[in-house]
Every structure is written in C-alpha cells, then in structure tokens.
Amino acid sequence: MIESKEWNWNMVRGESERIWLEPSIVSYYLIDRWKKQEKENFLDLGCGLGRHTIQFAKEGFNTRAFDLSKEAIERTKKYATQENVNIQCDTGDMLNLPYSDSSIDCILCMNVISHTDTEGMRKIVKELKRVLVNGGECYLTLGSKETWGFKQEDWPLVDKNTRIRMEEGPEKGIPHFYADYDLILELFADFKIEKIFHLQDYYNKGDKTYSSYHYHMLIRKEE
Ligand SMILES: C[S@@+](CC[C@H](N)C(=O)[O-])C[C@H]1O[C@@H](n2cnc3c(N)ncnc32)[C@H](O)[C@@H]1O
After folding, report:
1. For residue 24, is it within any domain?
2. How distant, in Å, are the alpha carbons of 141, 215, 218 from that of 26?
3. From atom 11 of ligand 1, which residue's Cα is the shortest distance away?
4. How far is the centre of ligand 1, averaged over its atoms, from the C-alpha of 208 (Å)?
5. Is 1 inside any structural domain?
C-alpha cells in the first residue's frame, strides 16, 4: 500500500483559502437530512481548514474533525475558537481511524478518500463500515476515471487505478485513486448505496477554465 501524504495547506492562503472556507452546497442538504434522522455524532473525515466541521458544530452536531495534516487541524482549531464552537480534533491517517466500532452516526468525506491507492481504498471502505453505527451514513466523493488527471500519462501510475499528482500546488506528490461505476459497485458492495452522481464541475484558474469529474455518493451501513 502506498504511503499516505497530507495536503500542503501552507500553500493555501488568500483567495484560495477563502474558497476552502466556504461550505459545499451539498452540506446544507446533509444537515437537513441527518437532523431529520436524529443523527448526533458527526465526523468530518479529512477536514482541511474545517469549513464543514464548523458548519456542522454550529448546527448542534457532536463534531469530530480528523486530518493527516497537523497544519489543517491547527487551522481548524483556530477557526473553531473564533466561531466559539466545541469540537474534537484528531490528527491521523484515514487508513486507521482512531474511533471505536459503531461510534459515528454520519460522516462527510469531501474530496479526501481518493488520496490513496487501490489497496488503501479497500482499507478505508472497511474503516468506514467499522466506525459507523448500524443505519449510519457517509457522503463521499471519488475522483472519476473520466477526469483529466487520470489521463495524464506523464504522472506516475501506482496501480491500474492510481496516479501520483505532479502538478505544482498543495496536492503535488499525493496519490489519487480514480474510479468508474463498476469499481464503485465492487468497492461498496457491503453498503447500501442511497445515491450516486457523476458530476462535472468547472473552475477558473487565471484566465483558463478547467473541469473535472467526480463521483458523489451517499452510502448507508445496514447489517
Ligand atoms: C481536498 S482536501 C479536502 C478538505 C475538506 N474535506 C474540504 O472539503 O474542505 C483533502 C484533505 O484530505 C487530507 N488527507 C489526505 N490524505 C489523508 C489521509 N490518509 N488521512 C487523513 N486525511 C488525509 C488532506 O490533508 C486534506 O486536508
């Protein structure tokens, strides 16, 4: 299994920091859904700068923030202090989550679990199943094989689904796992897949427009 590598959040300041502090659109839906389901224990897995950690804590969830990057956790703690919310922060590797079996009701894992190889992905899926309560849900995103990154033949291939990202920036040197629909069905066979989308999003860098494809999934643990 490839060694895990955190994002270099020191490179994310100014305008790009502002982008990473704005909650994703789907988080509002999840708050509504999980409140209706009376879920309490929430995990922001790979929290980054804590945009969802703070949002969920403010909505009354018992919130844990987890990331491999000490810088990310320090900045999330600082943000929580500024916003006057109580959260639990843990640094570690998603391949071995420091939470007991059946202890988490809901997990948001936004642009995180693709940062490994195929073997790592199988391990993470097992970890999600282990820490979720029965009936617990996880919303996650996965890089798609349709996206430009997977087609970069000069980026090292780790296994048939994984490349090392070589573009300058906070993700340089980090493994990226890319999925397709059949692989997703195989990986998540032990979960009930509630929703699955294949989304193309567009973003601007300088005067250029880029787009990327991700799978978005809502999965549920059912024994
Ligand atoms: C693209 S950022 C997303 C941050 C956050 N989920 C958000 O949406 O704002 C990916 C995050 O995953 C973290 N990460 C990467 N590999 C990890 C691992 N093996 N265990 C825990 N966190 C990891 C990175 O350090 C980074 O903070």
Report:
1. yes
2. 11, 13, 11
3. 46
4. 25
5. no
124 pLDDT band, cuts 50/70/90, is very high
- Residue 54 sits in a domain whose CATH number is 3.40.50.150
Task: Kindly state whether residue 3 falls inside one of the protein's structural domains.
Answer: no
Parent domain of 131: 9-220
pLDDT in tens, 30-56: 999 999 999 999 999 999 999 999 999
> By alpha-carbon position, which residue is closest to atom 4 of ligand 1?
48
Residue 6: the pLDDT is 82
Under 8 Å between Cβ of 171 and 181 = no
Number of domains making up the chain? 1
Residue 60: inside a domain: yes
Report how far residue 39's alpha carbon sits from residue 48's, in angstroms, rounded to the nearest whole number.
23
Q: With the C-alpha atoms ordered 211, 173, 196, 104, is the resulting torsion angle positive or negative?
A: negative
> Mutate which of 6, 127, 139, 140 to test ligand 1's pocket (most atoms within 8 Å of Cβ)?
6
Residues 158-215 pLDDT 10s: 999 999 999 888 889 999 999 999 999 999 999 999 999 999 999 887 888 889 999 9
Other beta carbons less than 10 A from residue 81's beta carbon: 11
Residues with CB under 6 A from ligand 1: 4, 6-7, 20, 46-48, 51, 67-69, 72, 93-94, 110-112, 115
Return the best residue to mutate from 26, 91, 112 for the ligand 1 pocket (most ligand atoms within 8 A of CB): 112
pTM of the model: 0.95
